[in-house]
Amino acid sequence: MPELIDMDMKVARAFGLAFDLPAELRTRYLALGYTPPRTQIAGSFLVPIPATYLIDQDGLVVLAYVSVDYRTRFDSESLITALQALTVRRKTGERAARQLVMGRRRTRHAV
Prior knowledge:
Layout: H1 10-14, E1 18-20, H2 23-31, E2 46-48, E3 51-55, E4 61-66, H3 76-110
Antiparallel strand pairs: 1-2, 3-4
């Protein structure tokens, strides 16, 4: 399963999933233990917005999770449940497609 590792948070910034923290809040975040991700963007203090997307084989986003709280992540149990549901959906869809094709063949032979 492909996983994106977003060096310098280029993708996150492009999709609005990171923001540069205003200078007046930086010392407060540091005091709370926040460590900004390392980037090669001088003077930036980026804060990522946690996001998880599950995309099916057709490129359709079937699950999207975004949290404005950088400390909150999508839990792995829910992701596993979503993957299992996607697998069932795919198998059900494949079965229905086979039945449709077989039904068409029968129809043609019956005529």
